[in-house]
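Case study B.
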Amino acid sequence: MDGLSKDNERRRERLDRGIKVRSDGIYVLLSWKEISYLLVPRAVLVITLLVVPAFLPPIWQRVVCLAGIYALLAMAFDFLLSFVGLVCLGGALWIGIGGYIAGILASEFGLPPAVTLPIATFGGAAISTLLFLPCLPLRGIYFAIATFIYPLLFSHIIETLHIAGGTFGLSGLPTFPNTWIAMYLMVILLFVIFFGLRRMVNEDIGLVFQGIRDNDQAIRASGLNITFWKTAAVFVASAIGCFAGAYLCALYGWAGISFFAFDFSILPIAAAVMGGLGTFTGALLGSLVLVPLTELLRAFGSLRMVLYAAILAVFVVTRPEGIMPYLTRKYHQFERWVEV
Amino acid sequence: MSEQIQPILSVKDLTKSFGGIIAVHDVSFDLYNGDVLGIMGPNGSGKTTLINCITGFLKPDSGNIIFKGEDITGMPPHRIVNMGIGRTFQIMRPYYNLPAYKNLIAPLFSPRAKKFAGSGKLGDRDAVALDILEDVGFERDAYVPYKLAGTLPLGYLKRLELGRCLALRADVMLCDEVFSGLSAAEIASMLPLIERLTMEGATLIMIEHRLKELFRVAGKVVVLHFGRKIFDGNPTEALEDEGVKEAYFGKEREVTL
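Model:
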């Protein structure tokens, strides 16, 4: 826009690859080449997640479990932000509520994870949704503020009233029988939730959610109750988040105030942004990169937060779209320079 | 209309004020099945506020709105829509990130549309949406229905708004300025669409500034001025009425005709 046109000004042109066009729609069944063009990226993800953890040393298998927890939170965050238009910083609340429900059930009644996980998932989701309900008819930042404040509220209630173990937390709770079961439970649930969410947002109900994001007045004029559908979306996300909390409790056999720590709100957001918003794959990949990276950098002590922040800053500045949209573009399109 | 037929929609002494400004002041009118009612008036005369009160987007301060014998005053918008009052927005409200035909999935997902459709499986609603878009003038064989709503020109977005009312099978459609902002060519293609709806027996309330087009379809007009109803009756008489002339053109001190 400098007003002067140079003679050899060039511009990058992006074009869809032939195979991308051929594999849109029913024509994908034309040949194995087209079918594999679609299947290979998905198969790589599924097979990697199924096979690689089996060959990891036990300490890294626990990191996979932890990465899975953050991946669940990141996907729930991505779903609410990109498909319903709600900015939710409630990761810490979900982990806390899910974790404490599972913890209290385990400590008071001695229930095993097989029982506490489903109860904490749906009970926790119901409680979180009820807590968020007053801000759901509102638009804008109010929902984000409320989701950010609740974890603080709960951790201080537990601390000052000395309920549910107070500052010491609940310890010595029943855990998963072994790391293998814990790890593969997480991996399989990641698949179910990942593919389930991807499917849901493209169904008719997903279009209603996207309608709420784009234009809630038009949704009202379409005869749909926006508060009801927002509540439904928040319940789905809360169930995912509360499962992650209950899982964390069953993984460590412990539940404490640190479950309400802001890490659970912030790190999933960083992972989702790094991976690419609105893709779910990005949230998944972002967590699977960031969490092990955090573990690797643990050797650096508190300096690792500096490195970690630097990596994030570089990412946000140089690749704001995220890893996944970048990779998708490279896979579907080729680029060339053309003279303007 | 004869006296014993009940009006499908009747508005009684509706008042709505914003702070000190009374946007709608004691407005009453009746609408009968199959009628086309035009609402006209200068800018800021309360036309859109009236529509917003009828459709539940605003709560009126006083007065009643009776639809099919039921008082719908102050009901939430989605319930009113499901009873059969559809509306279009003056400033179009499409879902910009969705393809045009996917814009109609939300209304087709509403309880009212589901009641008409029976069971809708995946894909069914897409087909219905394409049919409706063809009805409102999207060329089916062209690429237009599949384009993102954000890339469509104004005329198509206005049609999309009408498509939403059709998808809801609204008994009464409230059209807020469907002709405003359109080019002459777009109006020329939009008008037959409205005319066809009226031929098919649709009940319409049309807010309109384009009087020429309005009078071709409206059987009755209500004229608002500073929130008050100043005229209610035949379109041709409306232009002769002194009060209406005054509202639109101001008062002449000395008549020099």
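The mean pLDDT of chain A is 85. The remaining cases will be described in the next quarterly update.
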